[in-house]
Amino acid sequence: MTVAVIGGGISGLVLAHRLRTRGTEAVVLEATARVGGNVQTLAQEGYLLESGPNSFLDREPATRELAAALGVEARIRPADVAAKNRYIFTRGALRAVPSSPPGFLTSDILSFSARLRVLGELFSARGPEGVDESLAQLGRRHLGPEATTVLLDAVQTGIYAGDPEKLSAEATFPQLVKFEREHRSLILGAIRSQRAARKATASDGGPKSKLTGLLSTFDGGLGVLVDALAAALGDAVHTDAKVEGLVPQPSGWKVRVREHGRPVELLASQVVLAVPSHVAAGLLRPLDEPLAAKLEGIPYAPIAVVHLGFAPGATPKPDGFGFLVPAVEGKAVLGTIHVSTTFPFRAEGGRGLLTCLMGGARRPDVVARDEDALVALAREELKAMTGLSATPELTQVVRWPRGIPQYTVGHLERLASLDAGLKRWPGLHLTGNAYRGVGVNDCIRDATRLGDALA
Ligand SMILES: Cc1cc2nc3c(=O)[nH]c(=O)nc-3n(C[C@H](O)[C@H](O)[C@H](O)COP(=O)(O)OP(=O)(O)OC[C@H]3O[C@@H](n4cnc5c(N)ncnc54)[C@H](O)[C@@H]3O)c2cc1C
């Protein structure tokens, strides 16, 4: 019997591919007409538009291995060197994020007194033992209030679009908690771990970029990876196949599917839910209400993606990768990616492409606005923050009402109790961005791990 993988996002596709390359039959059941989930690249009027993720850090072995197995490794494209500059909009201006700790002391990204407070981090105390703190609590204890509301807030916004008062420090930035546990000071922990990693890289002769990973995509956008997975899986992928029910059988599962509008049943030895956690909750509710409630308890931040394309010469190429906006600035724009600076091939003939991410956990109201209103708001805020007033030749809006899962305080405990709850249901598994990492790399790593375990 086959493994039924429910959900054809990157997680489900990678899992099915891993199973099949290891000789285990698997089918992917995807509700919509296309696979990829959040990963969606659109070629339009000379622009390559990403509706979801734009890039990944090329340091995850599972991602490289996957790209190699699919024959698309040579199509990986690192960001232009110009993208090494990054900015935060704070105290009314775009300010450069220093690339090294010494640069930080002379940078104006924080006020003078806040920089002194950050130096005091070297003497900061460990947090209470065994308490899952919020990211903001951890930040304030170590870095002080200003660095927390400006720097830490901006960094988490770029990944989670979340609220640092609610996010779990350990679930979102485990490295920081590890630094605190092992070195007391985050700064000392970072310095020592960088030193150790440099030593290890030098001894195996690897490049320095192996330490941090290069921000990368594929020559045709991240859709290249999805297309290659879909091609490799062939008719094992069923699109327009929405799973509506799961029925446990003496050995395995009956999966109720609505495929091209018709009800179909499939018998599977194992079922993997690679769907958003609220969808998994809906499917499990008739079987196990407590398990469904735990899944439903994982909140999502809504996010709107607004692309603005500019004719060649209509606007100067902005410097750097882009900028992030801490919530304290009161903007609807969470951050802007200078796409045509970072990946010049994504805008043909010298065009300019900016992608604004808007809304997030603290401004869910923004995402509910209509498309014209979102474009107008993005342009108004960009003008105020960067002075950009040119009229775009292309605008495109994608809304994700449940964009990014939020690993709130208690997330790790919730995961442990989900794992315990799943033991009641042999042959039922979960993967996807709601559990062990929200990035594309995390999804690939978790699906690969599960694929190996099931195969
Ligand atoms: C705007 C945005 C920007 C992002 N930027 C980045 C970035 O730059 N870098 C990065 O690493 N990550 C980024 N991410 C995160 C990353 O894209 C996601 O975490 C990842 O793509 C999630 O993949 P998934 O397969 O786990 O889930 P999904 O992509 O949500 O896939 C789940 C699939 O399940 C299907 N489904 C739902 N219900 C059913 C059902 N009943 N039956 C069958 N199928 C069903 C859905 O249609 C969907 O295709 C971003 C996310 C968003 C939204």
Write the layout of secondary structure elements.
Layout: E1 2-6, H1 10-21, E2 26-29, E3 41-44, E4 47-50, E5 56-58, H2 61-69, E6 76-78, E7 86-90, E8 93-96, H3 101-106, H4 112-119, H5 135-143, H6 145-160, H7 169-172, H8 174-183, H9 186-203, H10 209-212, E9 214-218, H11 223-233, E10 237-238, E11 241-249, E12 252-259, E13 262-273, H12 277-284, H13 289-296, E14 300-310, E15 322-324, E16 333-338, H14 339-342, E17 352-359, H15 364-367, H16 371-386, E18 394-405, H17 411-422, E19 428-430, H18 440-454
Parallel strand pairs: 1-2, 1-13, 2-10, 7-15, 13-19
Antiparallel strand pairs: 3-4, 5-9, 6-9, 7-8, 11-12, 12-13, 14-17, 14-18, 15-16, 16-17
